[in-house]
Design goal:
single chain; 322 residues; alpha/beta; Rossmann fold; 2 domains; two-stranded antiparallel sheet; elongated; binds zinc ion
């Protein structure tokens, strides 16, 4: 998990707790001031709790029927509130998440992150890396029907059949990480064949699995590379050290003299040296990769021992989308 985002989620949880406690305090004050009879019921219940605690501290057995008497006192308070036109639970503790009572954690001896924390974390991580909100681009929502099912002359598979294999390969990669084989993955093909959707589906699956993934466009990468070339602000170093890096649309970024190729090589080479996985989508085929980025980059990206190269072919599905 990304520590900075997790910290933010837990800090927000604490703020929420504090806000809800302040609301509860205000409500109690309001009721005490307006309704002396309810104030008296509250005082009596408080006394009962106090007496129970002191008794326990003195080693006395629990007072007889204490739970029943507490429940009866609370029932009277709830009823009195309703008679005055308030909701029965107006003075109950306020929790946004009843599961963890807004502590963010569940479990007694072994603390586990509550589902509310996981959900907030995933939402924030998606936003931080530019994934569409809601996490809608998933393997489950991947529509195979939009790909033509007719075989083109000479083709062994239809576009839909080929896409089914590629989709499965991407899903398996995301499910098996960090034990996936091979380490890297490339989706190569022209625009409109579903590359970005697959990349997003992989990112969403990895985020669900609480893996540390960073998704950036090749264009943003070049911006970072350019700044790092002139100012060395450390951002490129961060990309290089990211657990799983996804680079979208390689080939669409401008070619900057001394920067694009040098920094891309630096990124890829350094990540391979550290054995960190990189997932790339590109509109270039192997030959075009070689032509644009030189042999030393292309060979690193297409080495079958370290990289699963998935070529997407067929017709643009964006116009025929149902
Ligand atoms: Zn919770």
């Amino acid at each position: 998990m990304r520590e900075d985002i997790l910290k933010e989620v837990l800090r927000e949880k604490q703020e929420l707790q504090a806000r809800n406690e302040a609301i509860a305090t205000d409500r109690a004050r309001e009721i005490r001031e307006k309704y002396p009879d309810i104030a008296e019921l509250l005082r009596q219940r408080q006394q009962m709790i106090q007496a129970g605690i002191f008794g326990a501290l003195r080693g006395e057995a629990a007072a007889e029927n204490l739970p029943e008497r507490m429940e009866q006192a609370s029932g009277e308070i709830r009823q009195a509130l309703q008679e005055k036109g308030y909701p029965a639970d107006y003075l109950a503790p306020i929790y946004d998440c009843p599961l963890c009572q807004d502590t963010g954690f569940i479990g007694e001896r072994i603390k586990e992150k509550c589902s509310c924390v996981r959900k907030n974390y995933q939402t924030k991580l998606r936003a931080a890396i530019g994934l569409p909100e809601g996490g809608d681009e998933t393997f489950e929502r991947f529509q195979m029907e939009i790909f033509p099912d007719e075989k083109r002359p000479g083709a062994r598979l239809s576009q839909r059949e080929a896409m089914g294999i590629i989709r499965k390969a991407c899903e398996t990669w995301a499910d098996q990480y960090p034990d996936q084989q091979p380490r890297d993955l490339i989706l190569a093909g022209k625009s409109g064949l579903g590359k970005t959707f697959l990349l997003h589906a992989m990112a969403n699956r990895l985020i669900e699995r609480e893996k540390n993934v960073l998704l950036i466009s090749a264009y943003s990468f070049l911006e970072i590379a350019r700044r790092s070339y002139f100012e060395n602000d450390g951002q490129l170093e961060e990309l290089i050290g990211t657990e799983i890096l996804m680079l979208d649309d390689l080939g669409s970024e401008p070619m900057m003299q001394n920067i694009t190729i040098e920094q891309l090589f630096n990124l890829i080479n350094e990540r391979q040296r550290r054995n960190l996985p990189t997932v790339i989508s590109t509109n270039l085929n192997q030959e075009e990769l070689r032509g644009r980025y030189s042999e030393r980059i292309a060979s690193r990206l297409t080495d079958r021992r370290s990289c699963l190269y998935l070529p997407l072919e067929g017709q643009d599905i964006r116009n025929g989308r149902k």
